[in-house]
Amino acid sequence: MARKRGSSVPPHVQIAINIFEIADLCRRENNALRSILRKQGLSDAAIRSRVQRLLQKPEADETGAQLLKLVCEESLKRYQDIDLAGWLSKAEIKGRPQ
Hints:
- With about 100 residues, this protein is mostly helical.
- The protein contains four helices and no strands.
- It has helices spanning about 10-40, 45-55, 65-80, 85-90.
């Protein structure tokens, strides 16, 4: 999403990369927040306890959900743009028929 990739990368690969990038962004943000809380004197157990309490409440901040929704919407647009018949005719399908 952040970086534009050339048309040489297949759409399904671009979608997978976008999902990975968002998951990695969330992981890094989570690690940074945990680091801040540890510097403030909270233990890992206390952080886990607070996180669990917050996760049980309805979401007030939907940043992660909004990013995932955006990726899904972009994925659907790209899937609709794919010429499936043309792609299948070019694809080298290997293996035994099922």
